[in-house]
Write a structure and sequence with these properties.
alpha/beta, 3-stranded antiparallel β-sheet, 12 helices, 19 strands, 33% helix, binds inosinic acid
Length: 420
């Protein structure tokens, strides 16, 4: 793996944290390429469980890590996580490098995210309310505050004053919320700046040098393909580019320098927030999958909606990411079911059936799933995959034309089997 991207192949929460943690053992540099504290990665190492949002998972594995320009960084969250992992014995100085071009999530972004969702009512997106959309919006509008602004107190003060003056108008006049006190904001952010300044870096140059030196670089995506701003199920998406190409954009390297794209998919599907979900499970089996899989959000604690594995959506993920191999996680969650539906096609409103993900939103919103039903295996898969489980995985490989190389069989780091 000279340069490997690990990408979520569904709607996020595929178990990427665990796969990154596993592959990070063999990596030299682990690079988080988009999103911010909306991500929630759970890593279990021995008796220790880490729930992290902002830092790259590789830090837990003791690797050098980078946060790319395509990320948004909430300084308060980042500092909280740095303090936590340091107190649990993981050094961060000399291990974490944050792109000076990444944008900062400010307290008004969080306030506006919540206010907009409340205003949307029934039409809300179901965001994590961490300020992600408003922070990326300011970046696109070119009024954002960047990580490198932390290096110059004078510039930081100026930018904060400008931003607070503008955002307070929105907060007060549009959303009838309390304004921010500019001096209090400046004092807090200057404090953060002091703590974070040593981590600011030119991450494009760092990754370029690492690749030239033959180091193994892992690019870690957050969220998932169907939450991609351009290619996902808009508007029920996040505001960044989780697809594999996002890694090249975020770290400023040519796309040809990426060698492998490992897609991570659950053996079933989950989705948090609103939006259509064709293979969503109806009936009591929904609660069963949710309970066995412990499908409750790491960031928000929200219940995740659960569906049977959707090969139409997964085929789309293989296409838009250029996935070269797949990791199928949480297969153990399906072990007690006697029958396992897999969505193989969608039936469109006009009656046609398709294996390809609909390009038009109305087709996607109104399509119905067509299932093949595979027999379950009804036995433990911890040490070895029984015949039924192997057949389930082979069915996925045959349908997608992509090898499944890793299968997740439990929460701990060692509960992953190589599949061949
Ligand atoms: P935002 O990223 O907070 O703006 O939320 C936009 C959409 O992405 C919502 O449907 C969220 O539930 C979803 N989302 C954001 N981050 C994650 C994640 O890490 N896992 C799963 N869904 C996510």
């Amino acid at each position: 793996m000279p340069a490997t991207v690990i990408v979520g192949a569904q709607w996020g929460d595929e178990g990427k944290g665990k796969i990154v943690d596993l592959l990070a053992q063999e990596a030299d540099l682990v690079c988080r390429y988009q999103g911010g504290p909306n991500a929630g990665h759970t890593v279990v190492v021995g008796d220790e469980t880490y729930k992290i949002r902002q830092i790259p998972t590789g830090l837990i594995a003791g690797k050098r890590c980078a946060i790319g320009a395509g990320c948004v960084v909430d300084p308060a969250v980042l500092i909280g996580e740095l303090d936590e992992v340091e107190s649990r014995g993981h050094p961060t100085s000399g291990y974490l490098f944050v792109s000076g071009n990444a944008h900062l999530v400010m307290p008004w972004h969080v306030a506006l995210d919540g206010a907009r969702e409340r205003r949307l009512g029934n039409l809300q997106i179901g965001t994590t309310r961490r300020g992600i959309g408003p922070a990326y919006a300011d970046k696109a509008t070119r009024i954002g505050i960047r990580v490198q602004d932390l290096l110059d107190p004078k510039i930081l003060r100026q930018k904060l004053q400008l931003a607070v003056a503008e955002k307070n108008v929105w907060l007060q006049r549009v959303y009838e919320l309390e304004p921010f006190d500019v001096e209090a904001v400046v004092a807090t952010q200057l404090g953060y700046a002091e703590r974070l300044a040593p981590y600011v870096d030119d991450t494009s140059l760092r990754v370029d040098r690492a690749l030239r030196d033959g180091e193994r670089v892992l690019f870690e995506g957050a969220q998932g393909t169907l939450l991609d701003l351009d290619h996902g199920t808009y508007p029920f998406v996040t505001s960044s580019s989780p697809i594999a190409a996002g890694a090249a954009v975020s770290f400023g390297i040519g796309p040809g320098r990426i060698d492998e794209v490992l897609g991570v998919a659950k053996a079933y599907v989950t989705r948090v927030g609103e939006g259509p979900f064709p293979s969503e499970i109806e009936g009591p089996e929904h609660a069963r999958v949710q309970e066995i899989g412990q499908e409750f959000g790491t960031v928000t604690g929200r219940e995740r909606r659960c569906g049977w594995l959707d090969l139409v959506a997964l085929r789309f993920a293989v296409r838009v990411n250029g996935i070269t191999s797949l990791a199928l996680t949480k297969l153990d969650v399906l072990s007690s079911f006697s029958e396992l539906p897999i969505c193989v096609r969608y039936r469109l409103p006009d009656g046609r059936e398709t294996e390809d993900f609909p390009a038009h939103q109305s087709d996607f919103h109104h399509c119905r799933p067509v299932f093949d039903v595979l027999p379950g295996w009804e036995s433990s898969i911890e040490d070895e995959l029984p015949g039924g489980a192997r057949a389930y995985v082979s069915f996925v490989e045959d349908a997608l034309g992509v090898p499944v190389t890793l299968v997740g069989t439990g929460a701990a780091r060692e509960h992953v089997l190589a599949f061949d």
